[in-house]
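Handout, section 4.2: multi-component inputs.
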Amino acid sequence: MPVDITLVKKLSKLMITANPGDHFQTLGMKFTGMDTGSCDMVLPYGAHLVGNPDTGVVHGGAITALLDTCSGMACATMLEDVGLTPTMDLRIDYMGIAEPGVDIHARADVYRSSQSVLFCRAKAYHKNQEDRPIAHCIANFIRLDDEVLKNLSESFKPFLEKVEVDI
Amino acid sequence: MSKISTACEQARAENNPGLIIEQIPYAKLLGVEALNVGEELFFVLPPSNSNVGNPTLPAIHGGALGGFLELSASIHLMMNLPTQVTPKVVDISVDYVRPGRMDNLYALCHVVRQGRKLVNVSINCWHKTRQESVATARAHFLVD
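Output:
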C-alpha cells in the first residue's frame, strides 16, 4: 500500500520551505500537483536562471534541478511510508529550447516500481505546448531499506503535522 | 558582437575563464569558479546554502550537481574551441555516485570526440581525490 498522498504533499511543501535560501528557493520552483505515481511542478522564469546572456534562455542546469525534484517526489509517492528516494542517475534529452520569459512546467510519472529501484520519466514543457516538450528525462531512484525508510519517516512526521497542503 | 563571443575571445586570449563565468547569470547563481593548474582547467563549486537540496545531511541538490557538470563542460568547450556562441546541450546523462557534501567540489572535463557539429564530453567531479567521484556525466553539445 503506497503512503497517504497527503503526507507526501506535506513533505514536498516542507522540502521547499524549510531551509530559507536553499537550492529550491534560489531557483524558485513550486509544486502544482501530486498523485500516487506522479508529480507536477513549475519553475517561474527569472533572470537569475539564464545560461545564455545573449538570448535569455534558461540554463539546462535549472531544468535538471526541476526534473530531478519532480521525478524524485513522484517516486516518493510510491513508497510505503513518507520519505525520500535518492537519485541514482538521470538522463535529459533537450528537444526544444525553453522560451525566454516563459515559465517552465514539469510532469513526472513513475513507470515501474521495483524492490530496489524506482523508474521514472518526466518532461519539461511550456503551458499549452505539452506535445512539444523542452526536455525529456529518464531517471532512476534508490528505494531505501525498510529500516532506513522507517527512521526517516519517523524523523519527518513531527514536522509534517503543522504543514498545510495547498496542492 | 554578442556578450558571449566577446567574453570567449577575451577569455581565450588571456586564459581567464572567469571572464565567461561573469557573463552567465546561472553560473553566478551556483557560484562556479575556474582554476588553471598547469595544462588542466578545473572548475570549483564552493560550499553554499543556495545549492543545498537536503538540509539534514546536508547535501548538494542533484540538480545543482548536474548543472555544475553541464556548465563546466560548456565553459571548457568555450575555452578550447574557437566558438563564438554558447554551446547548445543536446543531452546529458548524470550518475550520482556519492552525496555532494558542503565542501569544495572539483570538476574536470574531457573531450571524448569533437566532430564537425557535435562534441562528446565526459565530466568527473569529486571532493578529495578524483578517484572518489561524487558524480560523473557525459554530454553532447552542438557547436557552431
